[in-house]
């Protein structure tokens, strides 16, 4: 079968295999990151540090991620996404147990930096790979990939929590969680696409890359969306309890609803993208999120306020997948460099976000800070037409 039909069948088979591998990789990234969260209290107790010192240690993870993301685009351009994916996923699995027994602040800082660097390499390269798989398949797939990251997060936190409750030691729990990660990476390895990021013959890029042209717009919108996600995690409970909408022990229910809604939205996002297109998906999602902010900030009753968390999660669910898809369509930069730049600037927003929200909240109150977030999020539906047009004129 050497004709067009045979070539189409071969391409479809490659897309199917690569799609499975990409889903596994996104699952590993979410699973591995979430496995670390239940270990944080044990790390604090083992190291004997206060909140300020713990915060500095946790910052090492974020710094490692951003540093790695800044350079991974050049690696993907030259060697393809596969080596970076395998190095990042395997690195996370191998360093996770170290986080459970590092005995000094210096050792923990180094381990967190390496863990963050592995996460950053995996995160950027898997999105580069996802862009190419989506292009190869000829249909929207990005939201489904990102949904697997969220599902991995639920699984990782749940499995680690159950193992710790057995009870097993943190080191044994971390080792047990690393095993399925390594197995998944081994299964994905043979199915990942090979070649220089889907751009054979591309010139090697610089080691560090910043956005260029329309990629700046995509990176800015990614930073805004990640900032909103981070604020829901870091400040959502305080907003609910500060307004006396829920008791302190139930403060986390808002973020839980937000996360579940975001996962559900991403599971349906590919179908909606195929039905509506990226412009309508961004506009309608932005309007739904803004309606959620309106409920959250205006309601004196807990049920509507919690419904606000659900609407924010549903509306924001598919923003980042669309932005990565457009990064794969633009022509201002090589795709691996563009995806890496959007990822790194987005995560820089995550790192700066908690402090920025805290500073604004100190000046005008936490509801005021969330109103500023809503104003920033308005840029997504307002600029949806420009975003959706990227790559279509050429």
Automatic annotation (TrEMBL):
SUPFAM superfamilies: MFS general substrate transporter
Protein name, per record: MFS transporter
Classification via PANTHER family: BYPASS OF STOP CODON PROTEIN 6, INNER MEMBRANE PROTEIN YBJJ
Spans through the membrane: 20-40, 52-72, 84-103, 109-131, 143-166, 172-193, 214-238, 250-269, 281-299, 305-324, 336-364, 370-391
Alphabetized UniProt keyword annotations: Membrane, Transmembrane, Transmembrane helix
Database matches in CDD domains: MFS_MosC_like
InterPro entries, per database record: MFS (IPR011701), MFS_trans_sf (IPR036259), MFS_Transporter (IPR051788)
Domain of life (superkingdom): Bacteria
Signal peptide range: none
Compartments where found: Membrane
A family per Pfam: MFS_1
The keyword ATP-binding appears for this protein: no
Predominant place of localization: membrane
Membrane topology per record: Multi-pass membrane protein
